[in-house]
Amino acid sequence: MQTTPEKIFDFKRDNGFSAINADLSLLQGYNINNVIPIENGSVISDEVLKALINFSTDIISVMSPEGTILYVSDSNEKILGYKRDDIIGTNAFSYIHKDDIKKVFEEFNRGLMNPETSIINLFRFRKTDGSYTYLESTGTNFNTTLNNNIVVISRDVSGRVENDKRLNRLTAAVEQSSNTIVITDIDGNIVYVNKNFVNLTGYKKEEVIGSNPNFLNSGETPEKTYKELWTTILTGSVWEGEFCNKKKSGELYWERIKITPVVDENDLITNFIAIKDDITNEKQINQMLEQSLLEKEIMLKEIHHRVKNNLQIVISLLNLQSNSVDDINLKNQLTISQNRVRSMALIHQLLYKSIDLSGIDMDDYLRSLSSQLLAAYIDHNQSIIIKVNVNNIFFSIETAVPFGLLVNELVTNSLKHGFTDGRNGKIDITLTQLQEEHYELNYIDDGIGIPLTVINGHVLSFGMHLIDMLVCQLDGNVKHIPSNGTNYKINFKGSNYQTRLHYP
């Protein structure tokens, strides 16, 4: 006899109970009686009960002890895609994922052996399109009423399973993170610490949950840091900083910390998450590097001091030589040589006094050099004004030495040849940076001028080969601008040992 939806259940009333009398062709000879008790002798109509079953969002099914599907509700087609006539009479185990079938089979048999006991199971069930969905099923063996058949109510929980997987992945990532992660409530009491917190601090999780993190305080962190922290995070902002904390053993360690407020759907702060990095080794290495750099700075300053002293000795020797000769031209040449050595000694003197040994302040240097040259040419000390215009330019020693010698030669020539017979005047020295490592020197005096011959960018005449050589050393070029006095425009490149030796 063919089973139709109308003949699935035939309801009768018996002593205040509604019973399900299954057709023999449906349940293969098994009789079902007294399943649903109804209070006060009231009854449920056949149509209402069928509607309750077939319109349920869960899949309601009846299976034989062998797993044969005897009945399924209409929700089966909505969730799994199978029509009722296609799935009734087939074995349920044939649809279960191969990795889950052993577990499901064992639980199914356990339900058979324990009548009236609900067995809950989670497994993957194949749909009509070949994909699998997660079902959570509750099976019960109503031994006395359903002749040992199993009633199974299944619910599609794929969304929940995927959410659980994502949550488990997130939990595993947090728990196994190389960072120390601490979550507190709004009052700062710890509600979670990860594995790395335990490994780093030596405290067990059960020792710290519910406690305030102030047990980590070492006393090395200023109180104002904690006040700034709380002011920041209580206003919903992220705080970042460093703490010196104390382990359970008493050992001090350093952490770089980022604390982020957690807000709910009403934008109310519920928790704080602290992500910490152990920077103890980094601190120790930095301390060692700072100590090493300090020692090297002291050594370099001592070297510059000694070089300056040695150059002073050379200047003194040249001065003694100058005092021992009567030839005025030779005296002048010795004075020029002294000034050249002084220009180099001045660089080492400034480096010795400087806080930053990597660069020499050109404004300070040119002003000092100008004063030294005016003092050397005492006849012009009161009649010549040297004006220096430099804005925050620093040269390495490799650039400063040839540049200093170049300016020394330019000023010396002006003082010797541009202002004769006690003539008053001024010298303007302007140094500007055009772009990175490219500079321009504008040198102007209002003296009588010095005749020059410039061939292919090289200056020739009056012993100014040195100027030409120094400009070439600076990888630059010199341009003589016609004027009543002297006007040079020199473009050149700055350099340092790193670029010359192709250091990164």
Q: What does the model show?
A:
By secondary structure, this protein is an alpha+beta fold. Helices cover 39% and strands 27% of the residues. The protein contains 15 helices and 22 strands. The strands form six sheets. A five-stranded antiparallel beta sheet has the order 5-4-8-7-6, with helices on both faces. A hairpin with a 5-residue loop joins β21 and β22 (486-493).
Short recap of the structure:
This protein is α+β, with helices and mostly antiparallel strands and 504 residues long. The chain has helices at 24-27, 46-54, 75-79, 84-87, 101-113, 158-175, 195-201, 205-208, 223-233, 280-323, 328-353, 362-376, 397-418, 465-473, 497-500; strands at residues 9-14, 17-22, 36-37, 59-63, 69-72, 119-126, 132-141, 150-156, 180-185, 190-193, 239-246, 252-263, 269-278, 360-361, 384-390, 394-395, 425-435, 438-445, 453-455, 458-460, 477-480, 486-493.
Keywords, please?
alpha+beta; five-stranded antiparallel sheet
Q: SSE layout and pairings?
A:
Blueprint: E1 9-14, E2 17-22, H1 24-27, E3 36-37, H2 46-54, E4 59-63, E5 69-72, H3 75-79, H4 84-87, H5 101-113, E6 119-126, E7 132-141, E8 150-156, H6 158-175, E9 180-185, E10 190-193, H7 195-201, H8 205-208, H9 223-233, E11 239-246, E12 252-263, E13 269-278, H10 280-323, H11 328-353, E14 360-361, H12 362-376, E15 384-390, E16 394-395, H13 397-418, E17 425-435, E18 438-445, E19 453-455, E20 458-460, H14 465-473, E21 477-480, E22 486-493, H15 497-500
Helix pairs in contact: 10-11, 11-12, 11-13, 12-13, 13-14
